Amino acid sequence: MTNVAIVYYSATGNIHKLAVAAAEAAEKAGAEVRLRRVAEITDEPLAPNYTEWSDANREHVSASRDVPVAAIDDLDWADAVVWGTPGRYGLLAGPLKHFIDQTFELHARRGLMNKAMSAFTSTGTPHGGQESTLLSLSNVFYHWGAVIVPPGVTDDILLAPSNGNPYGVSATSGLQAIPGHLAQNVTDDNLAAVGYQTVRTLKVAEALRKGLAQG
């Protein structure tokens, strides 16, 4: 059985929805799955004057407390890791970067080498840095000697207008507010596409494990 870790940071719930869909698809495909959230690194609101965003952040943090917090052991255990992050100025979010910075010891003993890695994202606008956010994660994977598994354009679901780009499934959350909340615009196509991306990644992980075992 292939071990798949879905490791994500979600501020207001969009990335969480995609991560849950990824985990469900991996389980359906027969993988052993760990769904893990990356914790906030500060209790201070990131946008104190943007009350809709701050309220949505607090609501999501409270609602997702039952999801186990990611640990370095989850990466060591996994054959494949699928990462989720919102875009922050074209980069991965700070809490996820903080978690990645803790992988030095595992990386130093080559514990991340040859693992299959893939990533997905969500931004407020279609051109809000989705591609560069995913590429910023790829830079990390290069250092680890991991095997990057992009969705590419390998299935019709990836041609849906809402699915972003061939580097990884990308949702557009939207900036418009509804009373007390931000818009949650993850589409059914996004959920289907991240499921496809995850299964593609675990299949590559299976092939790598078998091939490496044969020497």
TrEMBL record:
Domain Flavodoxin-like residues, every copy: 4-177
Matches recorded under InterPro entries: Flavodoxin/NO_synth, Flavoprotein-like_sf, FMN_Rdtase-like_dom
Signal peptide: none
Protein origin, superkingdom: Bacteria
Annotated PROSITE patterns: FLAVODOXIN_LIKE
Pfam families noted in UniProt: FMN_red (PF03358)
Protein name, UniProt field: NAD(P)H-dependent oxidoreductase
Native organism taxonomy: Bacteria, Bacillati, Actinomycetota, Actinomycetes, Kitasatosporales
